[in-house]
Design a protein that fits this description.
Layout: E1 3-5, H1 8-12, H2 17-31, E2 36-38, E3 40-41, E4 51-52, H3 67-80, H4 87-90, H5 93-100, H6 102-117, E5 123-125, H7 134-137, E6 143-148, H8 152-155, H9 165-176, E7 179-182, H10 185-194, E8 203-205, E9 227-231, H11 240-248, E10 257-261, H12 268-276, E11 283-286, H13 291-300, E12 303-306, H14 315-322, E13 327-330, H15 333-339, E14 344-346, H16 351-362, H17 365-378, H18 384-400
Parallel strand pairs: 1-2, 1-5, 5-6, 6-7, 7-8, 9-10, 9-12, 10-11, 12-13, 13-14
Antiparallel strand pairs: 3-4
Helix pairs in contact: 2-18, 3-5, 11-16, 14-17
Length: 401
């Protein structure tokens, strides 16, 4: 048995939920001494660096004379001229960078295709939804595993455009895959409803995890005032504007801050909304480059709020619980599946109800402590070891076919 993983997600974003899953799987495969290969060297990935596997050459740094450089210079000039920049232009950052790295990516695509055609691996697990490998995969004996992390592109196509490559490719890849893994039963239900012609017996559920309990305590903490915590990107379905509205209704005498950890800096539209609600002194963006910083942001928060309208799983729920941060999340099916009775749920369309709930809860030490205790118990149901073992079982089964 030999497993091949490709490079896609590692060029898609610097560090996010999907790349986290694959990095955790790699750790466990290393521990178990299972033979596998990734098409790139990720030894510097947490610092945003990707090396070519054999030459150790840096391959994700764009040339000065590139489309991406022109794009970034253009953004800076427009900002200096105080010209309003539409959010859809700012959101193109990763796509423009990927386009500027297309030559390097094409070379990696060719290496993966060559390995597939030569039947060097029994199982291939692509890390995202481009299908450059599909013509040659059909000619080989290599089996394919595909992970479905969510169905957000299908459920909210208005946020991505009809020409989005995931919408074009997901169904084609799902038909071609020998085994499909969904990260929750909620995601599996959505997937099978949207793609009813995919046989259910082809689809398994493997839960993610999220454990930051072993990260050291930082002193001083990354943010030294009383705050509520939001983590991650703030795209439309993440429901961030709803959270701003709810937070704006909390009495100012509470002297609370809303810390937004990760994601990009506030866009002009977000900053406008923050200013319009008179929250510019209370809403703070904090970047982090390590899981240690993230763990301590959770540890020191009064509570963590996850207001999404849709998710495929919800790794931050478990990360927060693992370090004793009370979790408040929207009452969507997947959050109920993942959090069970260890979170406080709210209507993600009613900001005043959330505001009332937060004020009531912040005054109840007993309630917050109860959520902490329940969270510590709930998070024990999930582990990256279980996750990797479940994938390993699938890899073994496909290698025997």
């Amino acid at each position: 048995m030999k497993i091949l993983f490709d490079h896609q997600i590692f060029f898609q974003n610097q560090y996010g939920g999907i790349s986290k899953i694959f990095l955790e799987i790699f750790k466990r495969l290393d521990d178990k001494k299972i033979e596998y290969s990734c098409s790139v060297d990720l030894s510097g990935y947490t610092e945003g660096i990707i090396f070519e596997k054999y030459t150790k050459k840096l391959i994700n740094r764009v040339s000065f004379f590139s489309l991406y450089t022109a794009y970034k210079v253009g953004i800076v000039l427009l900002q200096k001229l105080k010209f309003p920049i539409p959010d859809f232009i700012l959101s193109k950052d990763s796509g423009v960078k990927r386009l500027s790295l297309s030559k390097q990516i094409m070379c990696l695509n060719e290496e993966v295709n060559d390995a597939i055609l030569k039947d060097e691996y029994t199982v291939f697990h692509p890390t995202y939804y481009h299908r450059y490998f599909l013509p040659l995969l059909k000619k080989s004996n290599t089996k394919m595993v595909l992970t479905i992390h969510d169905c957000v592109h299908e459920i909210f196509p208005e946020f991505y455009g009809s020409n989005n490559f995931i919408l074009r490719n997901r169904e084609i890849l799902s038909v071609a895959a020998d085994k499909i893994v969904c990260v929750s039963h909620s995601t599996k239900a959505d997937f099978l409803r949207l793609y009813s012609h995919i046989p259910e017996e082809k689809v398994s559920v493997i839960y993610n995890a999220g454990d930051l309990s072993k990260e050291p305590i930082l002193n001083p903490s990354p943010f030294d005032k009383e705050y509520l915590l939001f983590v991650g990107n703030r795209g439309e379905y993440k429901n961030f504007n709803f959270l701003l509205k709810a937070f704006s209704l909390i009495p100012k005498e509470k002297n609370l801050y809303l810390v937004c950890a990760g994601g990009k800096k506030f866009s002009p539209h977000e900053q406008y909304e923050i200013n319009n609600m008179n929250l510019e002194k209370q809403v703070v963006h904090v970047s982090f480059s390590s899981e240690t910083t993230l763990a301590n942001l959770y540890r020191n928060a009064k509570l963590f709020i996850y207001p999404s309208l849709y998710e495929g799983f919800g790794i931050p729920i478990l990360e927060a619980m693992s370090v004793g941060c009370p979790v408040f999340c929207s009452q969507i099916n997947v959050f109920k599946e993942v959090a069970g009775d260890a979170a406080e749920f709210f209507d993600p369309l009613n900001p005043s109800a959330l505001s009332d709930l937060l004020v009531e809860s912040l005054d109840s030490i007993e309630k917050l402590n109860s959520l902490r205790v329940k969270g510590f118990t709930r998070v024990q149901n999930y582990s990256w070891e279980k996750c990797a073992d479940s994938y390993l079982k699938i890899y073994k089964e496909l290698s025997k076919v």
